């Protein structure tokens, strides 16, 4: 999912978001995972909007399901940054309205050409997704 959140400038800066999404897709593929064919795009969506999307898409389905929600960060740092929130519970958890929240989510923050570079952020996001998957498998 993609949301301009609190910083539409960060999300509309093609020199940051496009390279991040390309790197994310590449890293997911290398990890044996795949992204949805098209992202869900939200206007002014906040982090929990991603959780509600997951409930609708994955609630009650068997197996682990993940949302990677890219959100424009609060402006004011001098950088046009965005974050990616990674949430990957079982479909049974997605099926419990309001159950998915920040406590089971990981975040990669400060993504920008002048901060955490998009390529590095994509690698970190996919590594965190893998760790979440491994955590639940135990």
Automatic annotation (TrEMBL):
Q: In terms of domain of life, where is this protein from?
A: Eukaryota
Gene Ontology terms, MF aspect: ethanolamine ammonia-lyase activity
InterPro entries linked to this entry: EutC, EutC_C
User: What's an example Gene Ontology biological process for this entry?
Assistant: amino acid metabolic process
How is this protein named in the record?
Uncharacterized protein
Organism for this UniProt entry: Cryptomonas curvata
């Amino acid at each position: 999912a993609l949301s301009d959140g609190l910083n539409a400038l960060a999300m509309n800066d093609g020199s940051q978001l496009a390279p991040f999404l390309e790197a994310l897709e590449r890293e997911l593929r290398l990890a044996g995972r795949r992204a949805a064919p098209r992202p869900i795009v939200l206007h002014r969506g906040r982090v929990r909007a991603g959780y509600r999307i997951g409930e609708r898409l994955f609630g009650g389905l068997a197996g682990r399901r993940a949302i990677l929600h890219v959100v424009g960060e609060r402006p004011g740092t001098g950088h046009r940054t965005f974050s990616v929130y990674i949430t990957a519970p079982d479909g049974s958890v997605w099926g419990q309205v309001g159950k998915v929240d920040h406590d089971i989510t990981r975040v990669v923050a400060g993504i920008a050409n002048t901060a955490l570079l998009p390529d590095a952020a994509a690698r970190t996001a996919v590594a965190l997704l893998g760790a979440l998957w491994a955590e639940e498998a135990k």
